[in-house]
Amino acid sequence: MFLKIVIFIHIVAATIWTGGHLVLTLGFLPKALKQRDFGIIENFESKYEPIGMPALLILVVTGVYMTVHYAPDFFKMDMADHYTRHLVFKFILLIFTLALAVHARFFLIPQRRLKLLAIHILAVTIIAVLFVFTGFSARSGGLL
């Protein structure tokens, strides 16, 4: 039963993370680029970040728990194992997400570089959707 609760919490956090980035990318980013207004992104981020960042943290914690449960031999890196293959892909996506976030936070946002930040936002959104797809693939028997 505890595992099912963890999975549910993971799905809710994924909904917040991915949904927030889809809203940003499709709803706010085009307007910010058209008006060349960095403030539109800042305004969205100031409201989303207190929800989005805890969701990302919850995703990592619940993801590690599920890794231990579903792939206890994960570190053997047996890519023939269904869950290991999916989890390796998810960890690669996580590394890219964190790298993009750090770069944006410390370089692009302070310099207010909207066009480069837009590329980061689009990349993080695509990665978020790939996270969802990979989780779906792992749970549905494998599309990867």
UniProtKB/TrEMBL annotation:
GO terms for cellular component: membrane. Keywords: Membrane, Transmembrane, Transmembrane helix. The keyword Zinc does not apply. Residues 46-127 form the Copper resistance protein D domain. InterPro entries: Cu-R_CopD_dom. The chain crosses the membrane at residues 6-29, 50-68, 88-109, 116-138. It comes from the Bacteria. This is Copper resistance protein CopD. The lineage of its organism: Bacteria, Pseudomonadati, Bacteroidota, Flavobacteriia, Flavobacteriales.
